[in-house]
Amino acid sequence: MKTSFIEYIKRRSLTPRTISSFDRVIVIFLKWLEKEQMKVEQVSYRDILSFMKSCQKQVSQRTVQLYLNVIRHYYDHLIEENKIEINPVAGIKVQGVKRKALYHIFEPHELHAIYNSYQDETLKGKRNKIMLSLLVYQGVKTEELIKLEVQDVKLREGKIEIPGGAKSERRLLQLESHQVLEFYDYINNTRKEIMTNSGQKTDKLFVSIEGGDSLDSCMHRLMFWVRRKNKLVVNAKQLRASVIVKWLKMYNLRKVQYLAGHRYISSTESYQQSEMQGLTEEVNKFHPLG
Predict the structure, then answer these.
(1) Is 1.10.150.130 the CATH number for 2-98?
(2) What is the pLDDT of residues 197-214, one digit of tens each?
């Protein structure tokens, strides 16, 4: 049964290191069941709590939480195999463990709607909409937007090259077909007019407009406008997470690592793990450990 579980998690394109850690946790759990003279299929909600309490004597709260997540996937596998009907781990969490905030992950059509909702035909509005398009379609970080130069846009190829940074790698990303036309208009018309009006000379793709319009403050105002239109939007990181989760459903882990600009595969895996646990769900009301 453990062997079939390993095959199950291998299908999710996890790294060998992660698969090995899953394997170790399941071995610990199965040994505990053997000691308690219980079968995997007979384990109840209360039995899981007993297992967690026994683990707390040896490992940290965070490690117990990690054990719990692996065992939850193990029982999801058993449900898929029609061995059981209910996951006994569902709804349990170790208290006192800080979690990354879970927020709504937008589906592709929702991201497209966010983009289409931004309507502003001023020079500033046209520039901002181009910036928003890179957030919702390419998952670009806000600090990467500021670094972009005109030469990074490859209109003939329909691609854009995103510069690397302290925590990200350079990558070449495909533009949506409508983005190619919009970038062409922005570079050849909107941007030139902004630069003429302000007297600027720069290779930067996105240029400031006179009157205290720094790109940093511009991004704050842009996200404020987006949040007013869609109450589910929290910040730009949420939009990036939505794009990465979309990619994970389309490509293998290594390709998503490249597209996201992640320096380490573990960064990409964290989005995959979140997707497996259900990013789009609200934080559940977990049973506390007594």
Answers:
(1) yes
(2) 878 888 999 988 865 567
